[in-house]
Specification:
Blueprint lengths: L1 E6 L8 H12 L4 E7 L2 E4 L3 H6 L7 E8 L2 H15 L1
Antiparallel strand pairs: 1-4, 2-3, 2-4
Main location: cytoplasm
Subcellular location: Cytoplasm
Keywords: Cytoplasm, Phosphotransferase system
Amino acid sequence: MKSFSYTVQDPVGIHARPAGLLVKAAKEFADTEITIAKDGKVVKATQLMKLMGLGVKSGDTVTVTAEGTSEDAAIAAMEQFFQANL
């Protein structure tokens, strides 16, 4: 299991556009479960509505975890995605 924490910089937080892109990026790793946690709530990164339901705003810190066959590649891709888009 690999994980990292990230403080969201996007002024609007995780809203529809980046959430949709995040789900698409996470689905590329079908053999690895990617989750996002905030304030004790954990959701799969492939579930758009639950992801948006976390209510992540600018300045919030989330923990991204990948567990599975491709966890190294998945966590690297997620970290790059967060830095580029959020």
